[in-house]
Amino acid sequence: MSEMVVPDGWEVKRLGDISDVVTKGTTPKSYTTSGINFIKVESLTESGKLDATKFAYISDETYFTELKRSQLKEGDLLISIAGSLGRSVIVDKKHLPANTNQAVSIVRLREKDIDRRYCLFFVNSEYIKNEIRSLQTVGAQPNLSLKQVSEFQIHTPSVHEQQKIASILTSVDEVIEKTQSQINKLQDLKKGTMNELLTKGIGHTEFKDSPVGKIPVEWEVKSISSLINTISGYAFSSSEFVERGRLCIRMGTLYNSKFRENRSPVYVPESFMDKYKRFNVTTGDLLMSMTGTAGKRDYGFIVEVPETFQGGLLNQRVIKIVSKQSTSKKYILQLMRSRLYLEKLYSFGSGTKQANLSVAQISGILVPIPSFDEQEKIGTAILSIEHTIEEKQRKLEQTQSLKKSLMQDLLTGKVRVTVH
Q1: C-alpha angle 25/29/32, rounded to 5°?
Q2: Number of Cα atoms under 13 Å in the Cβ half of residue 104
Q3: Could you give the dihedral angle defined by the CA atoms of residues 91, 17, 128 and 47, in that order, rounded to the nearest 10 degrees?
């Protein structure tokens, strides 16, 4: 194992020496649609929690006879030893009765020697992750042996200090979970609001049938080309790329409806901004990716270029969407992100391996069109929820970063806690 300086008063203990049991589960002969919880590797999340939606199930008979040896107990530490290595969780009473398979090791810790939460945080630390990377054997999939798991070195202060460290990190985890829960609820709210506003509008009481479903009687249905113009990107050659210059905006820059300036960036000379003015991209522009993988919805992403962007050039298979009416821009952005629009867009993707869209296809999609005033109100309402989600997402990322630095400081003893 790699060396790490241990503070005075701390000990280094093998995981096997502070456990009564280090074993692994067994795969049952069959599963059931309900019954006893059966935990698989995919049930263990990277955040150190069990995802009950990923459980399988076994019968009572299988649990009490065939898999009796690997019945789980409250407080068991589970560590994945095949596939996604090193994912670890503590079994909570609410998940019992339960069992697991041979891709998961079961570590039954001795409470007098180690605080379970502290041990979980340490096993999830970069120190152990680095050990796993150096130890894993690669065949059909990465694997760890039970002996290797038993040899994990856990750096331990006094139990009281362990408990204090675990309490601090747990409190940060609680903030992360709460923030993620808020984001999930806001995303559900956004979906519901989009569906409501893009089909029923604001304050309407009378509706009519249309090619896109029931809409307010005052609305029209036209192709989206009545709202937008498009500019297709230029086929810049890789031989023109330079180490420093202006960002060449490619499909990967528009990943998952986010503008990702640092995602495998390539650059073109600064002089190209004047040479290829038609393809200039600046703050506030709407862009869409036009190619992806056949059968996957990894294209058709529309993004608004953020205020922080310093300018770049549009590459081929990315288009700029220009609103014909300034008040329509927010509405267009939300409309082209909506299920109403995307379901039609994804029905077009041609190609056996690549899915390719054409400007004619995306421009010809029929959409509901309110008045310009209502378009702006609808776009603003949905965008307000998006901004709240983005604020929560920034808070989540900051808290996750805080947890990472706290784990590094507290689990190495670089920063010591006060124990009364």
Answers
A1: 95
A2: 29
A3: 10
Q: What is the mean pLDDT of residues 303-326?
A: 94
226-251 pLDDT, tens per residue? Answer: 999 999 999 999 999 999 999 999 99
Say if residue 88 is in the same domain as residue 176: no
pLDDT confidence of residue 404: 93
Identify any residues that bridge with 89 across adjacent strands, giving them in sequence order: 78
Q: What is the rounded CA–CA span in Å between residue 330 and residue 346? A: 22
Domain assignment of residue 265, yes or no: yes
What domain count does the chain have? 3
Bridge-based pairing state of the strands 77-80 and 88-90? antiparallel
Strand ranges (E), 284-407: 286-289, 291-293, 302-304, 312-314, 318-323, 354-356, 366-369
Q: Are residues 166 and 60 in the same domain?
A: no
Helical pair 126-135 and 116-123, crossing angle rounded to 10 deg: 50
Cβ proximity of 259 and 283 under 8 Å? no
Domain of residue 293: give its range: 220-369
What mean pLDDT do residues 52-58 have? 91
**pLDDT tens by residue, 330-368:** 999 999 999 989 999 988 866 667 788 899 999 999 999
Residue 106 has pLDDT above 80, yes or no: yes
Instruction: Please indicate, yes or no, whether residues 190 and 315 belong to a single structural domain of this protein.
Output: no
Residue 186, amino acid: L
Q: What is the CATH number of the domain that holds 146?
A: 3.90.220.20
Indicate whether 324 and 240 sit together in one domain. Answer: yes
Over the stretch 176-188, which tens digit does the pLDDT of each residue have? 999 999 999 999 9
Could you tell me if 227 and 365 lie in one domain?
yes
